Amino acid sequence: MIPVRSFSGKRVAVFGLARTGLAAARALMAGGAQVALWDDKPSSRDAAVADGLEVVDLTVADWSGFDALLLSPGVPLTHPKPHWTVEKARAAGVEILGDVELFARTVNAAPAHKRPKICAITGTNGKSTTTALIGHICQSAGKDTRIGGNIGYGVLGLDDMHSGAVYVLELSSYQLDLTSSLKPDAAILLNITPDHLDRHGGMDGYVEAKRRIFLNQVKGDTAILGVDDAFGQRICTEITAMNRRTIRPISAGRAISRGVYVLQGLLYDHTGEQAVEVADLGRARALLGRHNWQNAAAAYAAAIALGVTPQEAVDGLMSFPGLAHRMQEVERVGKVRFVNDSKATNADAARQAMSSYPKFYWIAGGVPKAGGIDSLEDLFPRIEKAYLIGEAAGDFARTLKGHAPAVVVGDLKHAVAAAYTDAADSGRDAVVLLSPACASFDQFPDFEARGDAFTLFAKAVGDVKRGACARSE
Questions:
Q1: HSE (CB half, 13 Å, CA atoms) of 300?
Q2: Structural domains in the chain?
Q3: What is the number of alpha carbons within 13 Å of residue 393 lying toward its C-beta?
Q4: Residue 222 φ/ψ, nearest 5 degrees
Q5: What is the mean pLDDT of residues 64-71?
Q6: Is 282 exposed, middle or buried (0-12, 13-18, 19+ CB in 10 A)?
Q7: Which end of the chain is more exposed for a tag (fewer CB within 10 A), N or C?
Q8: What pLDDT band is residue 155 in, cutting at 50, 70 and 90?
Q9: What is the sign, positive or negative, of the torsion defined by CA atoms of 255, 256, 257, 259?
C-alpha cells in the first residue's frame, strides 16, 4: 500500500467501493485521513462494513465538512450527467479527484532523490497488453516493477515507493479525467478510435481526456505516440511543437524517423541517425498480429526510456507469455482451439483478433457499443459461423445476414457447446474465438468473469472429450 499523507487530519468522502475505491480508502486512512465511504449498491456497502470500514450515508451527509471527494473512475463526472455526489461536492466547493491523482501528489511530495519512475499507458485498444508487456520487460531486466491502475491492482494498493521502483500504470480515459498532476517519465498514447463517447460528451471530449497523459511532462520525459491514426498524428505534431519532452512516434506499418516501427513483423529502432533492425516479432509467440506490433514498438520505446538496455528489451519481448483474456489460447480439443479474447469489448478491439485468423467460429455479443459491428464487415467472410449472445444478439444477427451464417444462442455456455460441435464436425483445424465486440454487463460483472467462464466451458468440453476417449480405449 502507498500511504496518502496529503489529507492527514482531513475528512474525505469516498464514493465507489470496488477495487479502486477500497484501495484508495485504505491508503488515505494509512496517511491519517478520516474517510466516509458510500456506494449506491447495498451489497458493496455491506462488504465494506464486513471488511471493517466505516460507511457513511453521503446522501444525507453535511458536505461542507469534507475536504475532498475521492470518486471511483466508473462514476460519471460530467456526462451523460454528473453523478449526484459530483453535484453535491461542487455545490459545497469540495475538490473532486481520483486515486491516480492521489498517487501523483504523493510522488510529487517526495524528495526528488526518492521518487520512483512512472510509465503511464493509455489508448482505446492495446493498453492492457502493452502495460503487461512493459512490466514484464522491466521485471526481466531486474527492476523493482509494480503493475496496476486500470489493470490488476488499484495504484494505491501497490507496494510503497522508493527511488529504484518502476510503476507501470494502465490509465483509462475515466481515470485521466480525474487526474491533473501526474508527470510520467514515459507516457504512451497507443491509438484513438471512438469509444466511451457518452461519458465524454463526444469525440472531442474523449480525445482531450486521452491527451491529458502528457499534461505535465517536461524536458527529460518521453512521450510515445502511435501515429497510425489521425488523432495520434495530430497530437504528436502538437506536442512536438512545444519542444519540451523527447518525442518517440511509433508505427505498426510504416517507417518513421525519430521513432520505433514495425515492417512485416520486423522491429526497427530509428531513434538514432539510422534505422536498426532489433527484433523479428515472428519469434514472439504472444505478440502475433499487427495490433501487437504496435504494442511491441511502444513497449520497446518505453523500456529504453526507463533505463532498460535494447537487448534486455528485446529479450523481454521474446519471453512475454501474453495477457489473460487477450487472444489467449485456453484449450485445445483435437483439431479445435479455443481462444479467449474477452477483453475485446468493442468492434475495433475485436478486429485485432479476427484479423489474426483466416477462418474462425465466432462467439460475440453482450451490451453493444455505438456502431455495433458494422465496421467489421470486411472480416465477415472469415466467419465460419457466428454464435450470438446477450443484448446485442438480435442486432448482430441482422447485421450478419447475407454475409455469414449466424445463430442466436442466448448465453455463453450454449455458444461454446454449439461452436465446438460445428468446429469438430468440420474435420479441419479450427478456432473457436470469443471476441465479443461488446461490454459484458448484461451477463457478467466484467470481461474477466466472461473470459473465465469461457475458459471453464472450453475445458469442460475438453474433459468430456478426453473422458470419452479414455472409456473407448
A1: 33
A2: 11-97 (3.40.50.720), 101-319 (3.40.1190.10), 328-472 (3.90.190.20)
A3: 16
A4: -125, 130
A5: 97
A6: exposed
A7: C
A8: very high
A9: negative
| CA atoms within 13 A of residue 10's CA, in its CB half-sphere | 18
CA 5 distance to own-chain centroid: 28
* CA 257 – CA 191 distance, rounded (Å): 19
How remote is the C-alpha of 331 from its chain's centroid? 24
Residue-wise DSSP of 284-342 = -TT--SHHHHHHHHHHHHHHHHTT--HHHHHHHHHH----TTSSEEEEEETTEEEEE-T
Q: Say if residues 425 and 387 touch (Cβ distance below 8 Å).
A: no
Q: Per the structure block, which three cell numbers stand in for 141?
A: 531486466
Q: 350 vs 141, 265, 321, 446, CA distance in Å?
A: 32, 20, 20, 16
Amino acid at position 441, single letter: F
Q: What is the distance between the alpha carbons of residues 322 and 298, in angstroms, rounded to a whole number?
A: 16
Distance CA 24, CA 306 (A): 26
Give the span between the Cα atoms of 120 and 97, in whole angstroms.
18
DSSP state of 116: P
Cell representation of residue 253? 506499418
